[in-house]
Design a protein that fits this description.
Chains B, D: GO terms for molecular function: kinase activity. Chains B, D: InterPro entries: DhaK_L_YcgS, DhaL_dom, DhaL_dom_sf, Dihydroxyacetone_Kinase. Chains B, D: Keywords: Kinase, Transferase. The complex is a heterotetramer, with 2 copies of chain A (331 residues) and 2 copies of chain B (206 residues). With 331 residues, chain A is an alpha/beta fold. Chain A folds into 2 domains: 175 residues, Dihydroxyacetone kinase, domain 1 (Rossmann fold), CATH 3.40.50.10440; 136 residues, Hypothetical Protein Tm841, Chain: A,domain 3 (2-Layer Sandwich). Chain A has 8 helices and 14 strands. In chain A, helix 7 links the parallel strand 10 and strand 11. In chain A, helix 6 crosses helix 7. With 206 residues, chain B is an all-alpha fold. In chain B, helix 5 packs antiparallel against helix 6 and helix 8 runs antiparallel to helix 9. Classes of the chains: A alpha/beta (331), B mainly alpha (206). Chains C and D meet through strand 4, helix 2 and helix 3 of C and helix 2, helix 3, helix 4 and helix 5 of D. The structure holds adenosine-5'-diphosphate (2 copies) and magnesium ion (4 copies).
Chain lengths: 331, 206, 331, 206
């Protein structure tokens, strides 16, 4: 394991101190917790947006704390959902009386811990609503299983729910628009290499020099299919095929696109994927409202990428384009 | 046989000992079908439990298990945190006012714990989760008239090993579908260590 | 070699198409060249800022094209300075009559190619000035050698020269402030892994599992010293020691800080480095005006980081804080 | 012996052949003390030269070398692009109006090329660059009364090999200081292939 860390068990706590030290004017860490909140929290008259999950996905989620996105990010151990008491602290620190909205990625752990916190907060008289993001089309959606994972599409939920809240939306309105995003966003990823949880010390799976994993998640777990490495164009084709047919996205639709790096992918490669993604969209007759290329939802030092599409309407466009100023997402 | 405060504490300390010893193995299992943190999670959670109860002054088993529950709930996180936390919380609630705890009360407590896990995680038997260990243990405790430590351990072990051939439909392992077959479920394994710790403590207590 | 590419020889050209496809409203590629320019170039009444160099450092330099930073980025092959004719096209496309300012990283190739383009442009009657960035303290500075390399500190030159130009500064004023940045900026880097030039197909050097390189550049070249991997705190200490003593930065100084990832470093690790960097600055009595943590000047998929300090005065602060809106640097 | 347009073209085609054949080797050398692109750069540049001159209709060597210069200058980039580009530009200028080019004129042309490289790169002999091959070649051509192909090649080869023991003070290799010792300079190696191509063409032309 080659990592720039001190004690592997202190990696998350060191990181949080490093984040707060980087942006002392805009964020702070709630004492005794692993919660990063807007320095001006609670923001009067605004619904608060709280997200989080295991660490190792940076800049998600602490990098999205700021005006126009999250009020707080609850940071668990690496790839481990934070416990309910941490989430509860985030809820309490950000509620201005207008209620708190939780953006949860669909993993058993995240759902259970966040829902427990929600119950605790409600018991304390705080209004809380939630959305569960499940954009990963690599995983079959079925009533009888855990269901689809939440991956990079989550960033669009943060941005749009955040903009709605910033614009003065009520808790119900924020929930409604977040659900609209979830209904219209789909993603799929692939990887060339595994990654190593610092405290584990060994990679989570093994890939041969000529192999790649298709349908990868963001927790170092293997994907749904292992095959020989293909060209960037073939990879883009495969990911897009699954994503496009799932909603489905159709000729005449307008979308936002995210080409997301998993942590160790040179931006050059992400742009090469984007070239093909844009060509496919053009051929399909789908218009692109806006594209995002970069590392938004990572999996430590995994090499690979995911592609996300979000079908837009006028409301989503206005909210996506609204200004936000956070370390990792700003315009 | 009865379970008193000291037995309860010994059980949890022994469980911690096992979680520390098997930390890497549990993590390795979780690398196969999950995200590779289960051993780290359990080792962190149970070492916090040992610290917590070492500093407490307990009069009832219910209180020991309540502190255990709260500690696991707030120190593990992930899927196993709320599940083990809920389990011990239900156990604690069921044992309130029962000290010293007799076998019947304990059996009912474990049954309540199992139900708590199932409510929280919405998994039933055969989905390749810790439920697959808790269920046969709860059943054995209910039906037996005198807990035999060796039998308890054997049931937990076989139940754990049986998860190997299952296809997961809950938890992270579910993403692998057929590919989840062939590996023991990490939560089933940690549950086995928990009950094997109990068996050892009961044996010594005799 | 595990890469998401098509033909290795087409990687740069594919990437450029992917960049332009991502931001079609703000940038364009000059036809038949590897130059990315602001879509509204030439910007009337503004000195144009042109930079560039070999590719493989993304988001440098195309990611910094936009309002408040660069007017054009000239993109060479991977780690290979672009030829003079490409630089000339960038100069011609961005000159509004107020002159063009070249930001050159100090490598023989970059200096030669950019200076030849400068001569050609002057021969065509265009006013051109330049600055050569040489912030890397790992390399000895001597009259008789190539001198120090330009690394991540270059981003501060882009930002500050860009802001000066945007504010209406003359070519001389832009040059003066760029030289002030160069005089006050110092960096040093380290790596855990090498990287692979796509067309070469094999890594540029080899490191054992327990080794790191101190004083690494950004072109896949080995560093100045090889040693056993140290903790994040020790690494931060070593880099900071060299950087701090070079200018030197002193008690009471105010600085901007950049903790830069080389491409495959999880953000978590960059923030862990930042934690220690900020502690060291605090102990030394140096105030931090602003910190930047992320991938700004990379070396393909190299794992590692660099630390940059820029000593600030009021002018530099105003210009660093001025708004910029480019894909990779925006606030 | 004289150099006519056909010999000039054969020289460049042969040089391209060598750059393609030695592409990986040159890149490997550049990985040792540089950034690992020299073979890629030279292969790209010279294949463009071959294409360019295949489509031309040349009356003078000066024109062949001018197109070579412009092509290398705009297709290589890096440090070697401007250096080889300048070299061939100076060679072209020196040979203007001299066709067919005799040995003396050619010797003066190579001397002018060397000076161009030195002006552009500010390197002198012993700094572990291509200058260390161009300088002894220019000297040999000036002092000999009749170019011997074998001798030309031998001088270039020895000069290239001698760069191995030098410590670089120019170009990227300079960053390595003492560590740059022990590896042949990639630009010296490509210069050797250029002159060894010339030697082979002169031999065949006899
Ligand atoms: N819905 C569920 N019901 C019961 N047990 C579950 C459920 N989801 C996960 N588990 C158990 O939790 C274990 C994984 O725990 P752990 O690795 O600590 O959490 P995570 O999956 O969040 O990383 C699984 O092996 C399984 O036994
Ligand atoms: N200042 C210089 N003067 C003469 N030759 C130089 C100089 N700098 C570099 N070179 C030559 O260029 C070669 C490297 O070329 P190349 O790898 O193509 O360019 P780069 O160094 O930009 O990657 C070196 O081996 C050396 O021979
Ligand atoms: Mg986990
Ligand atoms: Mg796990
Ligand atoms: Mg180069
Ligand atoms: Mg080179």
């Amino acid at each position: 394991m080659k990592k720039i860390i001190n004690d592997p068990n202190q990696a998350v706590s060191d990181m949080l101190q490093g984040i707060v030290a980087a942006y002392p004017d805009s964020v702070k860490q709630l004492e005794g917790t692993t919660v990063v909140v807007r320095k001006d929290a609670p923001v009067a008259g605004k619904v608060a947006i709280v997200s989080g999950g295991g660490s190792g996905h940076e800049p998600a989620h602490a990098g999205y704390v700021g005006k126009g996105m999250l009020d707080a990010a609850v940071c668990g151990e690496v790839f481990t959902s934070p416990a309910p008491d941490q989430v509860l602290e985030a809820i309490k620190a950000t509620d201005s009386g207008k209620g708190v909205f939780l953006v949860i990625k669909n993993y058993s752990g995240d759902v259970m811990n966040f829902e427990m916190a929600m119950e605790m907060a409600e018991a304390e008289g705080i209004q809380v609503e939630k959305v569960v993001v499940n954009d990963d089309v690599a995983v079959e959606d079925s009533e009888f299983t855990t269901g689809r994972r939440g991956i990079a599409g989550t960033i669009f939920v943060h941005k749009i729910a955040g903009a709605k809240a910033e614009a003065g939306g009520s808790l119900e309105e924020v929930k409604a628009v977040a659900e609209k995003v979830v209904a219209n966003v789909r993603s799929m990823g692939m990887a060339l290499t595994p990654c190593t949880v610092p405290a584990a010390g060994t990679p989570s799976f093994h890939l041969e020099e000529n192999e790649m994993e298709i349908g990868i998640g963001i927790h170092g777990e293997a994907g749904i299919e292992r095959k020989p490495i293909a060209s960037a164009d073939e990879i883009a084709n495969e990911l897009m095929e699954h994503v496009l047919h799932d909603l489905p996205y159709r000729k005449g639709d307008e979308v936002a696109v995210m080409v997301n790096g998993l942590g160790a992918t040179p931006e050059m490669e992400l742009y090469i994927i984007n070239k093909k993604v844009q060509e496919i969209l053009k051929e399909t007759g789908i218009n692109v409202h806006r594209a995002f290329v970069g590392n938004f939802m990572t999996s430590l030092e995994m090499a690979g990428c995911s592609v996300t599409l979000l079908k837009m309407d006028d409301e989503l466009k206005t909210l996506l384009d609204a200004p936000s100023s956070t370390p990792a997402f700003c315009f | 046989m009865e379970i008193d405060v000291q037995t309860a504490i010994s059980w949890l300390n022994k469980a911690n000992e096992k979680m520390q010893a098997e930390k890497d193995y549990l993590t390795k299992l979780d690398q196969e079908t999950g995200d590779g943190d289960h051993g780290i999670n359990m080792a962190r959670g149970f070492s916090e439990v040992e610290n917590k109860i070492a500093n407490g002054n307990y009069e009832t088993c219910a209180d020991v298990f309540k502190d255990t529950a709260m500690t696991l709930m707030s120190k593990i996180g992930g899927a196993s945190g709320p599940l083990y936390g809920t389990a011990f919380l239900r156990l604690s609630t069921a044992l309130k006012g029962q000290d010293p705890v007799d076998e019947k009360a304990f059996a009912q407590g474990v049954q309540a714990a199992l139900e708590g896990i199932q409510q929280r995680g919405k998994a039933s038997v055969g989905e390749k989760t810790m439920v697959d260990v808790w269920q046969p243990i709860a059943a054995y405790l209910q039906e037996t008239s005198a807990i035999e430590a060796a039998q308890l351990e054997k049931i937990a072990k076989e139940a754990m090993e049986a998860t190997k051939d299952l296809i997961a439909t809950k938890g992270r392992a579910a993403y692998f579908k057929e590919r989840s077959k062939g590996a023991i479920d990490p939560g089933a394994a940690s549950s086995f260590y928990l009950f094997s710790a109990l068996a050892e403590v009961l044996k010594e207590a005799k």
